[in-house]
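#lab-general

N.A. 3:47 PM
ok so I finally got the sequence cleaned up, no stray characters, all 237 residues accounted for. can someone with queue access submit it? mine expired

B.Y. 3:52 PM
send it over

N.A. 3:53 PM
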Amino acid sequence: MPLLDHFHPPLYPRRHWESFHVTWAGAIADALNEQLLPDGYFAEEQAHAGARVEIDVATFADGETVARNGTVATRTYAPPEPPVVVPAAFPDEFEVRVYGGEGDARLVAAIELVSPANKDRDTHRRAFAAKCAGYLAQGVALIVVDVVTNRTGNLHTLIFEVLGRAADAGLPHGTDLYTVAYRPLVRDGAEVIQAWPHALAVGGGLPTLPLALNAELCVPIDLEATYTAACARRRLG
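B.Y. 4:20 PM
back already:
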């Protein structure tokens, strides 16, 4: 199945890219759980767009909180007005998280599907890059897939910048569509991040990338097969 443009006509706005991203993440999680992950590991898709916490406007009467619907909620602690408030960007999340390890589930890998909001402005781009760099700094393997055609910019190079890595990004200059697998590990006493970058193009194919579960074990993520499955589920193509 060739890569479609989900952000311009004829697909958009008749078909919603958000629905497809959720479906694609589900197809990847299904492939991991049904075919690829060894015992003790599992994958879950996550989807969230916009801010994580929104203050609910309410009125206060007689020491009780009255919500919009008129019901009385349990009184909660109200902190004093903060002396400092700074603008922030909360990145969209369309991702698959892989958990494993002994005892409590531990995040070992993540697959991020880039959204237009992630590339919308400098603060959003840096927030996304910081999130990805944070994963890698904690030893969490990562794959980033960027098929967004209505925004420019390369988040892969920005992730390297946030990590302080003055390294060749491995993609041609001006590449806006791409996918990259990252593997953080320690080799000969040195901390390194291995990367497998691939440029993408509308009408072209999608590669198979390695997703590391630990320092020794990787599983192959067939983006072509999962993309095809997602398109079939949404009757695209």
